[in-house]
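Subject: design request, 316 residues
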C-alpha cells in the first residue's frame, strides 16, 4: 500500500517503504535493488566471497536468513541452504521454522540440507543444560555454533553465511562494550576467516541492513516466515541491548550504522586467523583444552544420565 502519496526516491513511482536511516522511500522493486546493493557492498567491503563462489547459508526460517539466501543467489553465488532442527520443546516454533525454510528452497529451486541437533549431539539441549548447570540459551548458542560449523565442513563448504543484520551486530557490540568483553570485541567483524578442516569461514552479508528494512523486504516478497522469538530465550540479555539500539535509532536515525561501521573503521582490520594447533582429543575439533567445551558438555550429560539410570534400577 502506498503511504501518504509518497514517491520512491529512486524511480518516483508510488513508494511503499520508508527507510528513515537512509532518508529514503522505496517501492517494492527499488527496495529489492537497495537490499541487494547493501549486501553486495558488505561482501566487497569485508572480503566475504569471490564472484560465483559456493556458499552455505544457515537458514533458520526467519525473514533474515530467507532474504540472505535469495539475495546471494540473485547476486550470482552458488548458495545452498542448511537448516538445523533444534527441538526447543515447543513443536510449533520448530515446525514453522522448518516449513518456512523448505518453502524457500522450493521457491528458489535450491538444495536445503537438513540436520537435527539432538541427533548430532545424542542429547537434547535441555538435558545438556541440566547436566552442566548452564542456562538453556547459552548451551543452545554454543551447540548451534559448533554443529553449524561441523555440518558446513561435513558438506564440503568452505564458507558459512548467517542472516545476522545490522541491529543484531550493533546490539552485540553495545553489550560487549558495556560488559567490556574484550575477547568478544576482538572477534567482532562481519567476516571471520576459516581454517581448513577446522573452521568454515563465517560471513554476515546483511550487516549493513536494519532488521526493519529486512522486514519490509520480506513483506514486499509476500513470504510466510517463521515469526516470533525463540520460546526458550527468556532471561537472555541481548534483547535489552537490541531495545536500546532501536530506541536510539528511532530518536536519531542513522545512529546504528554509524555506531557499528564506525567501530569497525576505527578497528581498521579483521581479527587474526584462528589458531588451530591444539585439537580436542575426543572430536578432533580445535580446542585450547585437552577436551573441547562440547565434548565436556556431552561427557557430563552421559555421566548424569547413567547416574539417573542407576538410581532408577536401585529403586525398581
Ligand atoms: P539467531 O541467533 O537466532 O538470531 O540467528 C542468527 C542467524 O543464525 C540466522 O539468521 C541464521 O542464519 C542462523 N541460524 C539460527 N538458527 C538456525 C537454525 N536452526 N538453522 C540454521 N541456521 C540458523
Ligand atoms: Zn571435542
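Subject: RE: design request

Done. Sequence follows.
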Amino acid at each position: 500500500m502506498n503511504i501518504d502519496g509518497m514517491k520512491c526516491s529512486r524511480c518516483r513511482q508510488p513508494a511503499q517503504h520508508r527507510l528513515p536511516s537512509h532518508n529514503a522511500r522505496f517501492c517494492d522493486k527499488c527496495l529489492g535493488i537497495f537490499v541487494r546493493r547493501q549486501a553486495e557492498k558488505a561482501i566487497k567491503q569485508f572480503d566475504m566471497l569471490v564472484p560465483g563462489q559456493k556458499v552455505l547459508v544457515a537458514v533458520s526460517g526467519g525473514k533474515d536468513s530467507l532474504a540472505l539466501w535469495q539475495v546471494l543467489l540473485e547476486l550470482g553465488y552458488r548458495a545452498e541452504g542448511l537448516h538445523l532442527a533444534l527441538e526447543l520443546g515447543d513443536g510449533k516454533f520448530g515446525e514453522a521454522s522448518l516449513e518456512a525454510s523448505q518453502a524457500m528452497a522450493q521457491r528458489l529451486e535450491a538444495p536445503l540440507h537438513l540436520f537435527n541437533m539432538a541427533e548430532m549431539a545424542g542429547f537434547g539441549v535441555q538435558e545438556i543444560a541440566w547436566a552442566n548447570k548452564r542456562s538453556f540459551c547459552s548451551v543452545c548458542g554454543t551447540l548451534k555454533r559448533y554443529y553449524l560449523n561441523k555440518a558446513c565442513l561435513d558438506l564440503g563448504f568452505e564458507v558459512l553465511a548467517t542472516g545476522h543484520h545490522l541491529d543484531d551486530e550493533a546490539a552485540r557490540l553495545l553489550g560487549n562494550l558495556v560488559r567490556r568483553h574484550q575477547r568478544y570485541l576482538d572477534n567482532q567483524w562481519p567476516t571471520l576467516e576459516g581454517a581448513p578442516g577446522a573452521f568454515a569461514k563465517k560471513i554476515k552479508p546483511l550487516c549493513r541492513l536494519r532488521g526493519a528494512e529486512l522486514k519490509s523486504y520480506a513483506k514486499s516478497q509476500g513470504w510466510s516466515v517463521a515469526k516470533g522469538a525463540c520460546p526458550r530465550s527468556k532471561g537472555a540479555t541481548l534483547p535489552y541491548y537490541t531495545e536500546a539500539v532501536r530506541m536510539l535509532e528511532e530518536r536519531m536515525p542513522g545512529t546504528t550504522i554509524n555506531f557499528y561501521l564506525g567501530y569497525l573503521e576505527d578497528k581498521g582490520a579483521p581479527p587474526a586467523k584462528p589458531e588451530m594447533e591444539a585439537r580436542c582429543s575426543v572430536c578432533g575439533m580445535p580446542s585450547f583444552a585437552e577436551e573441547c567445551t562440547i565434548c565436556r558438555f556431552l561427557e557430563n550429560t552421559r555421566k548424569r544420565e547413567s547416574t539417573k539410570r542407576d538410581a532408577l534400577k536401585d529403586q525398581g
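Residues 40-228+235-276 form a domain with the Rossmann fold fold (CATH 3.40.50.620).
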